[in-house]
Amino acid sequence: MARIDPKAVLEGRVAGRPPVGLIVGLTISSVCALLALSLYALDGGPGFWAGLVLAILPIPLLVSLVLTLDRLEPEPPRMLVFSFMWGAGVAVLGALVFNTLGMLYVTVPVFGEAKAHFVSATFGAPVVEELLKGAVLFGMLWFRRNEIDGFVDGIIYAAMVGFGFAMMENVTYYARAFDQNGAEGLQAIFVLRGIIAPFSHPLFTSMTGLGVAWAATHRTHRVLAPLLGLLAAMLLHGLWNGATAFGLGGLGVVYALDFCILVALVVIVLLERRATVRRIETYLPAYAGTGLVTPADIRMLHSLHSRRAARRWARGVGGPGAARAMGDYQLAATELALLHKRAERGVADPRWFETRRDSLLSLMAVARQAFLRTPPSYAPPWAPGDPSGFMPPRA
Length: 395
Fold this sequence. Notes:
Elements: H1 6-11, H2 20-43, H3 47-56, H4 59-67, H5 77-143, H6 151-196, H7 200-217, H8 224-242, H9 247-283, H10 295-300, H11 304-345, H12 350-372
């Protein structure tokens, strides 16, 4: 069987072709991030470095928490990194430029110095920042529509953009707090932004992510849904910024609202995960004739726990290579079910559907061969007495 690049198949790209667009995007985003940091460093005082460290510190934990929601069908790491860097680079630098120009030439001349900061924070900045953060999601909808399989994908990519933006924005907040109020002020603002409310920007941009995800996976409201999502992101952002004018009561209302939305997003993720499992159970039995799946194998794909158990079994019978092959099989099977979801909703071009389906089946076949070349000495735990595609047929 011809050699297959599992990552290329799972990401839906041509093997061996360098992702030029992604490389250019990462380069531009990185340059923008460095320029923004340079401006922060020049404008900031001694608190800049403390602010930079504290802004970066919680990011690995926060990103890890969000990615736990994406374990059934993980997004390509390179796209997650690009989304994060877009938020930390292009969106931050663009917001810095446009917000500053807006203050100088619009809000201060119109509303005066006293009211300008409130008007800019409540009405101007949310529009500018959510447009810039959402631009990468709209770009994915235009150029990488097939990468977005559902609401979970929209939420995950939006969260990465939001984390990148929030990290860079926090540098300025922490540095300012330290320069104005010393270590005590820095501690207070870190607790507020880094511990109590670290999901604010990801939460806002997730509204755009939901709208983009709808447009990518449905035939109706493909223009209206992303625009409504973007509008919701701006409204949530404006409410958050404007709540400071109403004291603790205003902040309490906004915190409660955002917490409810966060819970709703988690519920959406869990419901969509269950729907994906149902599609696996619905569509994969049609491929039983290929020998790639059996009813027992479909049961193995039913939960994250059984998938982990299957990878442990694979490692036990064939080492790390077999464990990787099992992971490729599981992801390809999930992508196959999601491919049928697109066809079911009428958003999959028939020719692309056939090509994508065949490449996923080929990857599943290659992964399965890793076990059949040297048959395992004991049956997999999900099929102790039933047929499995990972065991030779019984004589």
